[in-house]
Amino acid sequence: MLKTFSRVLKTSVKQSKLNYVPMYNHTAVNKVCNSSREAVKEITDGSFIGIGGFGICGIPENLIRALNEQGTKDLTLTSNNGGVEDFGIGILLKNHQVKRLIASYVGENKEFERQYLSGELEVELIPQGTLAERLRSAGMGIPAFYTPAGYGTFVQSGGFPIKLAKDGKTPLLMSEPREIRVFNQRPYLMEYALKPKFALIRAHKGDTAGNLIFRGSSRNFNEDMARAAEFTIAEVEEIVEAGQIGPDEAHLPGIHVDRIVKGEKFEKRIEKLVFSNGGKVELNGKGCERGWVRERIGRRAAKEIKDGDYVNLGIGMPTLIPNFVEENVRCVWQSEIGILGVGPYPKPGQQDADYINAGKESITVKPGATFFSSSDAFGIMRGHHLDTTIIGGMQVSKEGDLANWIIPGKLVKGMGGAMDLVTSGSKVIVIMEHCNKQGSPKILNQCTLPLTGKRVVNMLITEKAVFEFRHNDIFLTEIAKESSLEDIKKTVECDFHIVDNLATF
């Protein structure tokens, strides 16, 4: 059985201080491989591999396919998530070549979820920004760092099941607690750098010296993976001679790339193909009878967006909000995949697999937009550069605790970037339906689900009411016209204060 992950990292850090010997001799010449199979032939059973991409955007699909055909097994992989069942990392999981996956999000890969819940796969879930920074730190030679993400959660306390027994309930291997330090009266967790033996990445163009250019949001984790690994293999859509990529054009210098190959076949799938419908808002789909609820919540949340704001929208219901922002409000939408300036969905025929948001949906970008790496995206959050974060929720407590990433034993989605966002220093607005499907309250004295963040919510918007959190207490500030104070009291578990000038929406 693998040692617990943090112990492995502590060992590797200690060794790097003493007598670090690179696994391979890096070379400035002869980097071009003739095929993807040739490029991955040195990867052996039991290897630790970092794989670039976000969902299936920017994944090195040809290198993954070659690794699958090679049959290399007992792999430890780190990637943002597990993709889909029949493409990318999903084919390695389906073929049982993966022993452990270190990721931030399970996503819609049911096989990934099934293997974990049946005890076939070890899974270590960590905040997305922490994952990006652990990789970036490894590439910069920084052995450890401190982050506020995960404080007050399983990430801090440890005890999250990395491996379950076949019954899907009994934990066989648990995560370890993090060391805590306090800086400027704020608690931080210490995280170790994450250094894979190999990295498999994808870029748009590369030259024979290994210099790379990424395209659109496919840059995401690819750049950080390349810098972190001991040995990086890049697949590209086009290879040119050294010198044909200008010195100020390369996104990643060739010193970080050891092998480069032109991919044999690019499917470049789009996980969630979404089209613009001429400005109309379609709120149906699953649970179409609840479309009015989503619209009411979205419209009310949109009123919190101010002119000039930089705003991050979580996946799911928050993605509806741009449809309801008033035309005279100019704001910039940020996405943790590495975009500032997210635009509307494309029209049919204009979709581009390299233009994807954090919800893995097809998008366009607005004039003035920029693309950057995942670590830069979370640096924007961690550096308090965002004004507002709007995120979905499963439960909220009276003190502003949030739970939104897992239902133990039933639903394993992962925290994604949520733990980073709620500790970003921006105004955190949670939007969710007032009660669960059984009609039970979701606004509680204490959250019963594992926390995303402790005392992090500033405002909560449901279809019935708006609450604000002040000094670790909850205040009802607005009530829906169709609702009543008696109804709110019946559908909220905790006591709450009512402001004197209670408004309606």
Structural features, described:
With 505 residues, this protein is α/β, with parallel strands linked by helices. The protein has twelve helices and 28 strands. The strands form six sheets. The protein has a ten-stranded mixed β-sheet. Strands 1, 2, 3, 4, 10, 11, 12 and 13 form an eight-stranded mixed β-sheet that branches. Helix 6 packs across helix 8 and helix 6 crosses helix 10. It is globular and about 75 Å long.
List keywords for this structure.
alpha/beta, ten-stranded mixed beta sheet, 20% helix, globular
Q: What secondary-structure arrangement, pairings included, does this model have?
A:
Elements: H1 5-19, H2 36-40, E1 48-51, H3 61-70, E2 75-78, H4 89-94, E3 98-103, H5 110-117, E4 122-125, H6 128-140, E5 144-147, H7 154-157, E6 161-164, E7 171-174, E8 180-183, E9 186-192, E10 198-207, E11 212-213, H8 222-228, E12 231-240, E13 259-262, H9 291-302, E14 310-313, E15 332-335, E16 339-342, E17 365-371, H10 374-382, E18 388-392, E19 395-397, E20 402-403, E21 406-407, E22 411-412, H11 418-421, E23 427-431, E24 443-444, E25 459-461, E26 465-470, E27 473-479, H12 485-491, E28 497-504
Parallel strand pairs: 1-2, 1-10, 2-3, 3-4, 10-12, 12-13, 14-15, 14-18, 18-23, 19-24, 23-25, 27-28
Antiparallel strand pairs: 5-9, 6-7, 8-9, 10-11, 15-16, 16-17, 19-20, 21-22, 25-26, 26-27
Taken as a percent bin, the fraction of beta residues is 25-35%
Quick check: average pLDDT? 92
Largest sheet: 10 strands, mixed
> How many helices?
12
Low-confidence stretches: 1-22, 284-288
Helix content: 10-25%
Cα(first) to Cα(last) distance is 56 Å
